[in-house]
């Protein structure tokens, strides 16, 4: 018997959300003023939720580690946001967006949540336009669309290559308005250190001020975590330097189940790494695959000559180029989903066709020559100019003249805290939105769907569902955390963890351990995984963690700006989270979406799902530092969709 | 393949906290790959300082792809360093030569006080935004996105203005420490679109009043801000801001 109740409403799929809203509890305006909601993280999911809740009349306390909510990493999303508007009249519907998302996620997401996501997608575009988000338009003055991977329609709205920036600035403007009105108490440069549970409910958080080092408690009738994904566990990823998994990890250790931690997205088109000092990897938007063609040399000797610097890609004639995505997946071609494109790149480079001039021998080409011939340089520049500029600044190569060099890297985490239909975790009163939860993308997320989910959760789902919980909180008065034992204890725990870290006084930096952890995970819990490697990874992570606690070195003090302490706090959590990822990957004896187990592949090298045994959400429960986590299963049932093997070869 | 490397000397502004007096300290680094970014070079220096049990240099940075606006270094006398249309994190070491001395300072702006070393406090920008950098629309109850056609030229120009990342390079570059380009970018973006037109004058008035209150200087149209803006925000937006501001004053 599972402990997991997904609380999916009864009734037909298309009626569930309307029925839910029609019957849920609401909080009346006079009572909203008496309710405090804590929102941690101010990206799309957090910023939108904080603004919307404050507009409704709740008192909101919002937190971010950056110096402004406008800097949350949602800002870096480039390509676009999906919605089922069907403006281009190419046959899109809510059902089709829902279907593509479930299929794209390789049938490992919850049907009712995904349908609701598709249902509210259109309202997001309306909202953003009303805020003044300058989406791309046609000469008619109407909104323009483009295509993204995993879809046969053009449903992606965009603002040049800066869609995430523009949507975040929209949410940020709404949030700024509420801060100015005094409805949101904003705490910048503040990091969550722990979540406080009182009588079984989430009642607040303990934070550290990143400037003064002050440890402080904050009371809330409910806590919303919108803290993003944990992709930085790999050290190198497309995430921001400060992106971290600490909030969700603290929640996990306080009793929130962690779902599908092994489901990590590896984005196929990033600029390859250049050397040991590399601090992060830069994404090149999936939108580029609308017009760019991906290839490697057909002949191994050509690939070798390129790696040796004796040949240029322009020297290779068309007939000697292997457009391997077009060859393997004729129906979707260069626009196959990310997991498929990434694995195909790995397959080619593993077989010796990679193009990078370094030890890795990785890398493939993304070539715009054909699009420039077809459309002209001006059109390509209008579409992707800022991305091309970004590429040139990093690589010193001009992508109008020579193909981009790209390779897959860690980009997004589909896994996250387990939530029910109301986005509530297994801790009552603790809600989780955006990338931080697990709910909508299954084992693989489609391009332009992260912005959609973050804003759907933030504007249109959480502000409703949280009221079904808060309606029972109206009789609980606001409390002073200084008077509650639970807060005092949490503050002491936080201080003692910081003191423990500071007193190690070893001789290696937090970054050193982070890089080592990243190597273990990339090699053994990365694009391809197997039983032996995963078992090794678990042991290696345990040993590394032990060494970290014996040998990490943090200079400076605790009562001032101390980036080394910030990093060490986050790395300490990553060193535990990485192990849970390996457990989850080891448990899942199948391949699905971004999770590829070498033992479970078809003869053609495609992922082999095992629906009979693994059609469930793996939700892990923390049982203590030295104990193995306990697995709980939420079975996935598909009522409206026929479960099939994913096929991107034919329509 | 061996990467090309250079040796450099760094003169870095060190300041314990807002109240302390700061000074330059000199560091030497050897064998820095020209393919590494400027901030990766600073990472190398910091890792070295940590290993010597010295305090690393504090500086703001986050996305490292030129969009979050967090990084804010004044390098060799230029905001974001010796390259055009980039942020500090997009600057690469290939822009420097072997043996060069590189001077690194924080933004020197009264309204952005130094927090530590190279970090500054840009809360003033937040307050300006809170004073009016929005369309006063709440979630829900808005018309269909295609209900109001907007001429492509207007949408494109609004996008040009909306590209501002709020880094503060314009203020740091301006001899008067004026925030006009920052304010103009937001006012102009929203004034160009029908959704934002309704409140355009009020917005201009409120944001400018807040800017003045926070001690930013006046604009004397030298155009230095435009030259150093990593996103190439045009001076033309300041003209539009002035128009909206004038209209607001005539109306009142």
Topology:
The complex is a heterodimer of chains A (651) and B (252).
Chain A: H1 16-23, H2 29-32, E1 36-40, H3 44-56, E2 59-63, E3 81-82, H4 94-104, H5 111-131, E4 156-157, H6 163-180, E5 184-187, E6 190-198, E7 201-209, E8 215-219, E9 222-225, H7 246-253, E10 258-259, E11 264-270, E12 293-297, H8 300-307, E13 321-322, H9 324-328, H10 338-350, E14 364-367, H11 369-375, H12 377-395, E15 404-413, E16 416-417, E17 430-432, H13 450-470, H14 485-504, H15 510-524, H16 531-551, H17 563-587, H18 611-614, E18 616-621, E19 630-635
Helix pairs in contact in A: 3-6, 3-13, 4-5, 5-13, 11-12, 15-16, 15-17, 16-17
Chain B: E1 5-14, E2 23-33, H1 38-51, E3 73-75, E4 78-79, E5 101-106, E6 114-116, E7 119-120, H2 123-130, H3 152-162, H4 169-173, H5 180-191, H6 194-197, H7 200-213, H8 224-228, H9 236-251
Parallel strand pairs in B: 1-5
Antiparallel strand pairs in B: 1-2, 3-4, 3-5, 6-7
Poorly predicted tracts of residues of chain B? none
Q: Please summarize the sheet with the most strands of chain B.
A: 5 strands, mixed
Query: If you consult CATH, what is the topology of the largest domain in chain B?
Result: Fumarate Reductase Iron-sulfur Protein, Chain B, domain 2
- Share in helix of chain B: 25-40%
User: In the CATH hierarchy, what is the class of one domain in chain A?
Assistant: Alpha Beta
% residues in beta strands of chain B: 5-15%
Helix content of chain A: 25-40%
Q: How many beta-strand elements of chain A?
A: 19
**Largest sheet, spatial ordering of strands of chain A:** 5-2-1-9-17
Shape of chain A: globular
Structural class of chain B: alpha+beta
Give the end-to-end Cα distance of chain A, rounded to a whole number of Å.
40 Å
Would you state the CATH class of the largest domain in chain B?
Mainly Alpha
CATH topology of one domain in chain A, which one? Flavocytochrome C3, Chain A, domain 1
Looking at how many chains there are and whether they match, the oligomeric state comes to heterodimer
CATH superfamily of one domain in chain A: Succinate dehydrogenase/fumarate reductase flavoprotein, catalytic domain
CATH architectural group of one domain in chain A:
Alpha-Beta Complex
CATH H-level superfamily title of the largest domain in chain B: Alpha-helical ferredoxin
The value of Rg of chain A in angstroms is: 24 Å
Can you list the strand order of the major beta sheet of chain B?
Answer: 2-1-5-3-4
User: Strand-and-helix sequence of chain B, N→C?
Assistant: EEHEEEEEHHHHHHHH
């Amino acid at each position: 018997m599972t402990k997991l109740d997904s609380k999916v409403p009864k009734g037909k799929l298309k009626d569930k959300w309307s029925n839910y809203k029609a019957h849920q509890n609401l909080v009346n305006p006079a009572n909203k003023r008496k309710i405090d909601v804590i929102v941690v993280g101010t990206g799309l999911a957090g910023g939108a939720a904080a603004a919307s809740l404050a507009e409704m009349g709740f008192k909101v306390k919002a937190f971010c580690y950056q110096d402004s909510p406008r800097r949350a990493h949602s800002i870096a999303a480039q390509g676009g946001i999906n919605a089922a508007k069907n403006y281009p009249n190419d046959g899109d519907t809510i059902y089709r967006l829902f279907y593509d998302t479930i299929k794209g996620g390789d049938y490992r997401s919850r049907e009712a949540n995904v349908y609701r996501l598709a249902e509210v997608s259109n309202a997001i575009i309306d909202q953003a336009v009303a805020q003044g988000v300058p989406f791309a338009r046609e000469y008619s003055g109407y909104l323009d669309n483009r295509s993204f991977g995993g879809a046969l329609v053009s449903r992606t709205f965009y603002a040049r290559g800066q869609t995430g920036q523009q949507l975040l600035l929209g949410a940020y403007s709404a949030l700024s308005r509420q801060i100015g009105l005094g409805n949101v108490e904003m705490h910048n440069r503040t990091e969550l250190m722990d979540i406080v549970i009182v009588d079984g409910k989430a009642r607040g958080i303990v934070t550290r001020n990143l400037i003064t080092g002050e440890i402080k408690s904050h009371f809330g009738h409910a806590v919303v975590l919108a803290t993003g994904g944990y992709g930085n566990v790999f050290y190198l990823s497309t995430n921001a330097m400060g992106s971290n998994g600490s909030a969700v990890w603290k929640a996990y250790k306080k009793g929130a189940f962690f779902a599908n931690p092994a489901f990590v997205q590896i984005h196929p088109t990033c600029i390859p790494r250049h050397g040991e000092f590399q601090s992060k990897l830069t994404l090149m938007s999936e939108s580029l695959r609308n017009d760019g063609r991906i290839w490697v040399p057909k002949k191994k000797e050509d690939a070798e000559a390129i790696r040796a610097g004796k040949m240029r890609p322009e020297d290779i004639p068309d007939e000697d180029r292997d457009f391997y995505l077009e060859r393997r997946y004729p129906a979707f071609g260069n626009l196959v989903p990310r997991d498929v494109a990434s694995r195909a790149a790995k397959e080619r480079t593993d077989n010796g066709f990679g193009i990078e001039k370094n030890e890795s021998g990785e890398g493939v080409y993304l070539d715009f020559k054909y699009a420039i011939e077809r459309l002209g340089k001006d059109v390509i520049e209008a579409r992707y100019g800022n991305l091309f500029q970004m590429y040139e600044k990093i690589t010193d190569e001009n992508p109008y003249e020579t193909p981009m060099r790209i390779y897959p890297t860690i980009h997004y985490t589909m896994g996250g805290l387990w939530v029910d239909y109301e986005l509530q975790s297994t801790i009552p009163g603790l809600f989780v939105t955006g990338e931080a939860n697990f709910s909508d993308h299954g084992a693989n997320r489609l391009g332009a769907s992260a912005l959609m989910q973050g804003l759907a959760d933030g504007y249109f789902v959480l502000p409703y569902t949280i009221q079904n919980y808060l309606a029972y909180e109206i009789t609980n008065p606001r409390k002073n955390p200084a008077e509650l034992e639970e807060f005092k204890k949490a503050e002491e725990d936080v201080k003692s963890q910081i003191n423990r870290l500071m007193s190690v006084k070893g001789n290696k930096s937090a970054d050193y351990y982070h890089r080592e952890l990243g190597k273990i995970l990339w090699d053994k819990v990365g694009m391809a995984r197997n039983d032996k490697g995963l078992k090794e990874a678990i042991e290696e992570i345990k040993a590394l963690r032990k060494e970290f606690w014996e040998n990490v070195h943090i200079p400076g003090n605790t009562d001032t700006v101390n980036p080394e302490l910030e990093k060490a706090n986050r790395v300490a959590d990553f060193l535990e989270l990485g192990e849970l990822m390996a457990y989850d990957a080891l448990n899942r004896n199948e391949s699905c979406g971004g999770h590829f187990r070498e033992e479970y592949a078809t003869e053609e090298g495609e992922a082999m799902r095992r629906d009979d045994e693994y059609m469930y959400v793996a939700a892990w429960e923390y049982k203590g530092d030295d104990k193995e986590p306990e697995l709980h299963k939420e079975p996935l049932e598909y009522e409206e969709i026929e479960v099939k093997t994913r096929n991107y070869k034919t329509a | 393949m061996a990467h090309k490397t250079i040796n450099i000397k760094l003169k870095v502004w060190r300041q314990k906290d807002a109240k302390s007096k700061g000074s330059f300290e000199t560091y030497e680094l050897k064998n820095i790959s020209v393919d590494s970014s400027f901030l990766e070079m600073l990472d190398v220096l910091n890792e070295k300082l940590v290993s010597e049990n010295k305090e690393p240099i504090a500086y703001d940075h986050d996305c490292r792809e030129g969009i979050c606006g967090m990084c804010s270094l004044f390098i060799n006398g230029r905001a974001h360093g010796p390259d055009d249309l980039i942020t500090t994190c997009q600057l690469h070491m290939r822009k420097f030569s072997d043996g060069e001395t590189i001077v690194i300072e924080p933004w020197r702006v009264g309204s952005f006080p130094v927090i530590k070393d190279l970090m500054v406090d840009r809360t003033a920008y937040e307050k300006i935004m809170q004073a009016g950098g929005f369309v006063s629309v709440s979630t829900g109850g808005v018309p269909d996105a295609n209900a109001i056609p907007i001429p492509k030229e207007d949408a494109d120009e609004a996008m040009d203005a909306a590209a501002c990342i709020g880094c503060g390079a314009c203020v740091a570059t301006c001899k008067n420490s004026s925030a006009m380009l920052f304010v103009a970018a937001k006012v102009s973006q929203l004034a160009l679109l029908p959704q934002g037109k309704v409140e355009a004058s009020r917005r201009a008035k409120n944001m400018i009043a807040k800017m003045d209150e926070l001690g930013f200087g006046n604009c004397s149209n030298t155009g230095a801000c435009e030259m150093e803006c990593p996103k190439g925000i045009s001076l033309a937006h300041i003209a539009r801001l002035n128009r909206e501001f004038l209209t607001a004053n005539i109306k009142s």
